[in-house]
Design goal:
The complex is a heterodimer of chains A (186) and B (181). With 186 residues, chain A is an all-alpha fold. Chain A is 63% helix and 0% strand. The mean pLDDT of chain B is 97. Chain B is 67% helix and 0% strand. The chains are: A mainly alpha (186), B mainly alpha (181).
């Protein structure tokens, strides 16, 4: 049960973002730019960064939601699963392995990101902006995961919720729905 | 030296924000509403103290000094008092029981969201903390887990002279997070 009263039809992050719309706005804006804005990383690649960090933080809601979004964007469900199991043996490029490794280190702590990890990413072709955005996406999901679990938010009663959520994240993005979320009430 | 070529000499998060203004805008907007908005029953000093404590736990030198100096500015404490609170807030006579309970929650958030317990929440409530104060405490703590990782994960430089941060705090308190100069 959530630690504060939240809308029961909005599990995970959405109930929090609706509870506090003023703080939600910059969080949504930041996420929309980082995960959906112009980038030399694909949307699917950026969702993999979110997935790896959420998985490392053991945040069930965020891991499941961003796995579903990554799967939908990639058109397959293998890559996200493999990346969660082992970055080094996952079917992604050397550059993505290096960036996902930086994300995993950022999750542990900022100080864990080593010169070697950065050098590896650069030699695999990662640009400075890609490294910047990888660190900030990883840091942002350290915020989200703690927000979602620290407030004790509920998981969806029906796992199909994640499919609907992933479609929203892919087709609409991270900004608030203009019509709100009342239509999700059963 | 920072891990990437920032093209500027600004310290800590300021150099990152100059480098990537697209992400700086929402990051600053988040700091402004969480830490400075007047529509909040926690004082600016109390909210800066939560940010300071989490930054201390994350061992982020830049953030704990920027926000420690701001907390000291608002609360009328010097740097030694702020250091003493960071090291042992339960023993800090100047803090209310409610603030101690909220700092306990913030400390759990730093470890991980699941570390926050129902008894920590009910303790905070028993000392008068509202739902909004609990929410904001968790979100401030979570936000600093982002800010600290951003600053240290990209290897930014931080001035080692702690007086640098103390000297800048009054101007930052006046300008807030949306006016950067």
């Amino acid at each position: 049960m959530p630690h504060i009263p939240l809308e029961s039809h909005l599990p995970g992050i959405t109930g929090l973002l609706e509870y506090s719309k003023a703080t939600a706005q910059p969080i949504r804006d930041l996420t929309q730019f980082l995960l959906r804005g112009p980038s030399s990383l694909t949307e699917a690649e950026r969702e993999l960064i979110a997935t790896v960090v959420s998985h490392g933080n053991e945040c069930t809601f965020c891991t499941t939601a961003h796995t579903a979004a990554a799967d939908l964007l990639a058109g397959e469900a293998i890559t996200a699963q493999k990346v969660k199991e082992n970055i080094e043996t996952a079917p992604v490029s050397e550059k993505m392995k290096a960036l996902l490794h930086i994300a995993a280190l950022t999750r542990q702590s900022g100080k864990s990101v080593s010169e070697e990890a950065i050098a590896r990413a650069k030699s695999a072709g990662a640009t400075d902006v890609e490294i910047h955005d990888t660190v900030l996406i990883a840091a942002l999901f350290c915020l989200y995961n703690r927000y979602v679990d620290g407030m004790g938010t509920a998981l969806p009663a029906d796992p199909a919720y994640y499919g609907v959520l992933a479609e929203r994240l892919v087709n609409h993005g991270y900004t608030r729905l203009p019509q709100g979320y009342e239509h999700l009430k059963k | 030296m920072a891990h990437i070529a920032l093209g500027n000499e600004l310290p800590g998060i300021r150099g990152l924000m100059e480098y990537r203004p697209e992400t700086a805008a929402p990051l600053n907007a988040l700091a402004e509403i969480l830490l400075r908005d007047d529509n909040n029953s926690l004082s600016r000093g109390e909210r800066e103290l939560i940010g300071t404590y989490v930054s201390y736990l994350n061992d982020c030198f830049f953030c704990q000094n920027v926000h420690g100096a701001l907390a000291g500015h608002y609360l009328g404490c010097d740097i030694n008092q702020i250091d003493a609170i960071k090291a042992d807030f339960m023993g800090a006579g100047e803090l209310s029981d409610k603030m101690k309970a909220l700092l306990t929650i913030a400390g759990s958030v730093q470890q991980g969201g699941k570390a926050v317990t129902s008894s920590q929440i009910s303790d905070a409530r028993s000392f008068g903390a509202t739902d909004t104060e609990i929410h904001d405490t968790v979100l401030i703590a979570a936000s600093f887990c982002m800010f600290n990782r951003y600053v240290d994960g990209l290897g930014t430089l931080a001035p080692s002279d702690r007086q640098f941060y103390v000297n800048r705090a009054p101007q930052r308190a006046e300008d807030g997070y949306l006016i950067l100069r």
